[in-house]
């Protein structure tokens, strides 16, 4: 517990997901937990590994054929990068609940300025780190390591020391001991050639660099390494860059027909069926789309594409489908046989954040949310072809075996098995 009345120290937190891609797979498929998971079958090499796979002797970059030999009970998967990006988005939306100053450094690493939050929450920085770690684990099932320090360099060193699944805070009281646990090459910004140079100066661990005085540093190092030394001493050189990364995750769903055909009604139904699948995925991750792209694939492998910015973010097919109809009518050409359709949802936003801005028409939104909560429950209980909006019903029917009973609703058509 903190002491009241004491001034808050500057505090930067570095959050780094543990074995991120493999953890996403383990979060999605609980049967993979505590088992060696290797992502990378599609590339022929191990791209990401669970800790269990690392313990079994698998290393990153290893050929999949070698992985199979070394780790015969390993679960080898192709990367589902779209899903990993959705998990990433959720991690960062959780971090932004705690601070306005969040920098997305990579898909699974970010910096958060938590200065002063100790006073606001009446918790120590270490306890705040534990709370954030626990929130991410509880809400999306991903384990992260958390490092806390006065600067980004110290925070990143702390999270390196925290791996896996712990919280480490570097303070003035423990800095020498903490830094002695990291090789100089593990300091952020010191690559292997710089590490080699520092080794020649007798610097092997992070505490050895920290212990050099300023005149030594000025004499032997160029500006980037002098900056690292300052950061290690708690003087912030690298600010938090809070611009949200512009590469937004997207959700796509496409389907190619067994043969090309030109039945306009059926092609539209297929398109809407894809819309439902993509929207269902968005709702599963608590995301709303700001933009929808429709795609008609022609027989000659060219695509007709149209992008629509939605008047309000949505993940509800019943809201989006009526907007797509005129676009589809404009794109569709009678003479062009089509071989498939696709939907891409992009400009995804966290629904909790969007809902705060949705004061107008709120009751309509709530009604739709209510309906689709029920839909999602039915879908998860009885399978993905159980229920759909009326306009995709024939496409859905075509894709499944003998439905026994059809139940009509104003917006929805359900098939009860
Ligand atoms: Mg990581």
List keywords for this structure.
single chain, 417 residues, alpha+beta, Alpha-Beta Plaits, Dna Ligase, domain 1, 2 domains, five-stranded mixed sheet, four-stranded antiparallel sheet, 17 helices, 15 strands, elongated, disordered C terminus, binds magnesium ion
Report on this model:
With 417 residues, the chain is of the alpha+beta class. It folds into 2 domains: 1-181, Alpha-Beta Plaits (2-Layer Sandwich), CATH 3.30.70.270; 251-416, 2-Layer Sandwich (Dna Ligase, domain 1), CATH 3.30.1490.100. 42% of the residues lie in helices and 22% in strands. The chain has 17 helices and 15 strands. It has a 5-stranded mixed β-sheet with strand order 5-6-1-7-8. The chain has a 4-stranded antiparallel β-sheet with strand order 9-12-10-11, with helices on both faces. The protein has a 3-stranded mixed β-sheet with strand order 3-2-4, sandwiched between helices. β14 and β15 form a beta hairpin. The longest helix is centred in the middle third of the chain and has 21 residues, at 264-284. It is elongated. The relative contact order is 0.09. Mean pLDDT is 84; it is low at 356-360 and 399-417. Magnesium ion (MG) is lined by residues 16-17, 20, 108-109.
